[in-house]
Amino acid sequence: MKLIKSIFAASALLTAASGMAHADETADSAKALIEKAQASTLGWDLVESLTTEIGPRLAGSDAEARARNWAVAKLTELGFTNVHIEEFELEGWRRGEISLHVGDPYPQRLVATALGGSIGTPVGGIEASIVRFETVKALKDAKIGSLKGKIAFVDEIMTRTQRGSGYGVAVQKRSSGPSLAAERGAVALLIRSAGTDYQRNAHTGGLRYDDAQPRIPAAALSNNDADQLARLLALKGDITLNLSMSSKRIGKVTSGNVVADVVGSEYPDEIVLLGAHLDSWDEGTGAIDDGTGVAIVTAAAKLVADQEQPKRTIRIVLFGSEEPGLIGAKAYLEAHRDTLDKIIMVSESDFGPGQVWRMDTGIAKADEAKADAILQVLRPLGVLPGDRTASGGSDVSVLSSAGVPAISMGQNGWDYFDLHHTPNDTLDKIDPEDLAQNIAVYAAFALMVANTEGGFHAPEKNTD
Question: Is it the case that residue 170 has pLDDT exceeding 70?
Answer without folding.
Answer: yes
